[in-house]
Amino acid sequence: MLSEDQLLDLNQPLLAEHNLQFDYLADLLARRGQDAHNIVLQLVEFQVAIPSWALGTGGTRFGRFPAGGEPRSLEEKITDVGILNQLNGSSNSISLHIPWDIPQDVPALHQLLQAQGLSIDSMNSNTFQDQKDQAHSYKFGSLSHTDRAVRELAIQHNIDCIKYGTQLGAKVHTVWLADGSNFPGQSHLRSAYLRTQESLAAIYEALPSDWTMLIEYKPYEPHFYSMVIPDWGTSYTLCQSLGQQAQVLVDLGHHLPNTNIEQIVGRLRQLGRLGGFHFNGSGYGDDDLTTGSAKPFQLFLIFNELVDANQDTSLAAATVAYMIDASHNTKDPLEDLLQSVDNILGAYAKALLVDRAALREAQQANDVVRAEEIMRDAFLTDVRPLVAEAYRQSGGALRPVAAYRAAGIRGQLIEQRGKFSLSTGL
Ligand code: PSV
Ligand code: MN
Ligand code: MN
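A: This is the predicted complex of the input protein with manganese (II) ion.
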């Protein structure tokens, strides 16, 4: 949909100003002993996976307003992620949700992925909805259900997800459970946990030795009295009981208001159980908005924990799967995703700028103001030239959203797929 020449043409009029801004910032950072080029290299390497279910409009339970040109098949979803990756060079993988994305023609999918320079990130199971002709219902739970037959159905579904993933070269399986209860007394809380643990162990047994199983937590929704896996502590204990391939997944929207998420991130990283992220923006709960739109400082603090831990030689290295988990009600989904990735890269760049030695010194001396000023210095630095340079060096657009608009991509997608095409997902 976009040729290399077209991207170069789109960048051309912006290049002089970009170079000016980049050189100025590089000089400024050099004075502080920081290497702008090195930061750009780290940004170029950083990749955020795109969920197949975030390429169309989500809507709320009150309504949905299709963007037009939404992908109607897995192939079209891959094409959309290919467009994003062409524009920013930072989204080279797609996560799949089963059964929405059951692969049909596996060799053709491999070909398409290769042509777009993409891979499959994680497989995600869905036991939060009943599928047509399903033998048992998940209305009262799946992996935690009181009835063994329901649990077995849910276990088999997860094993099927891993099988599909193996065909496509994925290495991560994510489990998010909607299981829980709405009323006091409805569920025996300890038994529900034990049944879940047993079911997860059966799935874990089917996990190939080079895969990771991520366990996501969420405090509420769809259930409002108890969720079987409400918090990172529960995820953590489940992972502990399963084995080293089980890791906790932190979805930024899955916390009660005012939770110190960066501390959770630091703690899990320290304990060797931080396996992945679902990035999104949240004002009240699982809002699934643009990452970093309302709380950029929080996103920066999260990246600060990650960077700090990565530079701590006393900690074991970690492989963390970064993914966006968003839903789009008012924005063009592709523009929203480009904005999210941009905010994520910006937060990462700022975290790389933190003067860690000085911060340690201030912390050690209990110099509260100095420590906070160091964080503010990094956060308030305008890092957009670094992020833009990373896009340019990856062959992308200096300004991905502007390029997406200038190239008229949504219009082309509408022409190809129609105005009322609907994507599978929530
Ligand atoms: C649930 O709220 C969640 O965050 C899980 O990651 C699901 O897989 C995803 O959203 C889509 O429903
Ligand atoms: Mn999620
Ligand atoms: Mn969620």
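The longest helix spans residues 4-31. Residues 262 and 298 are 7 Å apart (CA to CA).
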